[in-house]
């Protein structure tokens, strides 16, 4: 399904990309720091879920069609920015008394899972990334179609990304355990996440969308 001769180059490129700080890393790290490892794990799973969906779209050629429509990309960017602003506003309005206990975070974990999925799907730069990155490693030396190769390459990227994010959650979540027991921090933890969502919204709305 993939040309193993290009696999070392592909893996090197993927590792380099994972180490570059981005909005996904910021969301997962801040979720782990603010609410603990469980919430960070669910945010990581949400990111991986959206990555698989984008991989499927790229393999079917749908993402390329969307990426070639500047209006569609602009709509995605505005919707994504508006969604993140709403999430930030909701967090800012949440009362400190609503902060969940560490052992009662199932509902919050699912919330962060959904937010990670939606925010990534509404990010046109994530869509274009799959359009621009995966085809570079499609080989004409094997019988598999370009769609099949992009599917395997994308799934491999998502597996490695999930493993990296889970490692990040473990590291950051461990640092945040003492914060979660601090009453002053718990009073402001929702506001901290609200600020993160505002930063992500500005990041998305102010960024230039690359032309495929």
TrEMBL record:
The keyword Transferase does not apply. Keywords: Cell membrane, Membrane, Transmembrane, Transmembrane helix. Coiled coil: none annotated. One of its GO terms (cellular component) is plasma membrane. It is found in: Cell membrane. It is a multi-pass membrane protein. The keyword Phosphoprotein does not apply. InterPro entries: LeuE-type. This is Threonine efflux protein. It comes from the Bacteria. One of its GO terms (molecular function) is amino acid transmembrane transporter activity. The chain crosses the membrane at residues 6-27, 117-138, 150-172, 192-209. Its main location: membrane.
């Amino acid at each position: 399904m993939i040309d193993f001769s290009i696999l070392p180059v592909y893996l090197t490129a993927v590792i380099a990309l994972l180490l570059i700080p981005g909005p996904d890393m910021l969301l997962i790290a801040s979720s782990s720091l603010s609410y603990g490892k469980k919430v960070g794990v669910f945010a990581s799973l949400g990111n991986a879920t959206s990555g698989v969906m984008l991989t499927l779209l790229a393999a079917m050629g749908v993402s390329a069609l969307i990426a070639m429509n500047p209006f569609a990309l602009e709509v995605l960017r505005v919707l994504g920015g508006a969604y993140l602003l709403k999430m930030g506003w909701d967090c800012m309005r949440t009362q400190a008394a609503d902060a969940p206990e560490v052992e009662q975070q199932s509902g919050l974990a699912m919330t962060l899972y959904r937010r990670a999925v939606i925010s990534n799907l509404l990010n046109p730069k994530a869509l274009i990334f799959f359009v621009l990155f995966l085809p570079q490693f499609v080989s004409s030396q094997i019988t598999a179609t370009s769609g099949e190769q992009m599917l395997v390459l994308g799934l491999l990227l998502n597996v490695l990304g999930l493993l990296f994010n889970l490692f990040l959650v473990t590291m950051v979540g461990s640092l945040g355990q003492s914060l979660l027991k601090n009453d002053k921090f718990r009073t402001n933890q929702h506001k901290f996440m609200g600020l993160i969502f505002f930063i992500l919204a500005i990041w998305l709305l102010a960024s230039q969308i690359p032309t495929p």
